[in-house]
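Hello,

Following up on my earlier ticket. Below are the two sequence lines again, exactly as submitted.
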Amino acid sequence: MLRFSPASGGSISISSFIRGPQGAAATVAIGAVATLAPGATPTVANVGTTEDAVLNFGLPTTPTISVGTTTTKSAGTSATAANSGTASAQVYDFGIPRGADGGLKFAFESSTTMAAPSSGGVRFNNATPGSITQVAISATDADGNPVRPYMLTWDDSTNTAKGAIVFKREANGTAIILLFNGTITDNTTWLQIPVTWSAGVTLFSAADPVYVRPDITGNKGADGSLSASGTPTVGQLGVWTSATALKGVSVTGLVKGNGASDPTAAVSGTDYAPATSGSAILKGNGSGGFSAATAGTDYLDKGTTSLITKGFTVTPNNLGNITNFTIDAALGNYQYGTNHAAATWTAPTADCAVDILVTNDATAGSITFSGFTVGSNTGDALTTTNTSKFIISIRRINSVSTYTVKALQ
Amino acid sequence: MLSGALFNLSGEVAINATWAEDIYFTQSGQPMDLTGLAFRMTFRACEQSGRGYPSSVSPCLTLSTDDGTLSIVDDDDGYARVLRITKAAGTIGIYGDYICDLSSEDADDVITPWAHGVVTFRNNPAIWS
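Thanks for your patience. The regenerated structure is below:
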């Protein structure tokens, strides 16, 4: 061991110490690890010795976190988040307020008296939205802003329709829309606005925060103008000579167009047929007019003898599978059908002549004639043989009816 | 004082055991920071007459921070304030009295002679054979 002693006076000193042998290295081992509840303070404890430590740990578990429901809350309310799960399995439900509506904020007053509302208040003159005709609104909004000068401009539009005012309830967006066409009355601390109801049927509740937003109509546009020259006078036709110029044209009687030229009076017998008298059927006279047509000559008439010089064709009426029926000339004087089963043919109820072609099929049945005046010597035998065809001619003259069968086989 | 060193030095060192010794420097009661200093401790043989004059300027044994036999280590407070001697057993190689000089040199090549004196090297008497 070394020893130091000062050789001269001074503030420095030296000392020496023998170092002992180095001891064995300490050991540290991990003991038990316990799980603690989420959020608990971690713990550690030495259950060994100072030189050979054994550390027991207590560690909090990490909770699982998931998102539960998300709910839209009323505008102006605070957002919320709540754990609906457990400490170890956390489920967070969120409530998020919707954004506030645009416009000036007022507090609705249930009074219908058109008097000064409270500062920041607004009221209607009727509790039924559809009957609202006046609005009383404070000159200061609910946030304390002096908005009178602004609101006084709402009726500045030179249009008759000044605009609309939208009232929206902050909590749920319920709206009442009122049109305003009149002049706003300035009462200094409040304004009265004449309105007519447009939309919204649910009245707000007292003290409801309501956003008021005007939709103001723009000013009326300048009136259009016409060229001064040739402006039509009373009784004249107006004729456009350009996109903006109009002139008057005097025309008597019927008017006919003349393309790019002015309209002129139409000429009877040239431009139109002259008026005729009586009730006769008219025919063209070949010179721009009409003359009375002659019954029996120019047209068939039921009470006039007519000379027919040409034939005619018909489309026969299809009776289909013939069932019980009354012969009807209104269906056509030539008819045809299938004898598919037994049927009764009843005589026509009006004088007429009708020929009916009957074709038997495999299930043809007997035909019974009913109501005919003459029932004997009616021609060929009427059979039910399959595919056989017959023409049955029916006549009724002066209420006497008969029929004749002609076999086509 | 003949050497001009700040301290007189004496002592005994067992040559059959590891020389492990820590030297502390204090000034006005406060530990001195040894950062940046190089230390050297030389041992020269004493003259036969025993008058205390070295027979040779060449040291028989030198410990230094250069070869690691001396080292500057942190004290318990974490500051480089301990000069540590570590010389393994059997590596000292000298026996008897030797003149010891402890000095340091800083970054500006300023040499400070700290201590001077006679140190005796001998076997530790408490040995088992």
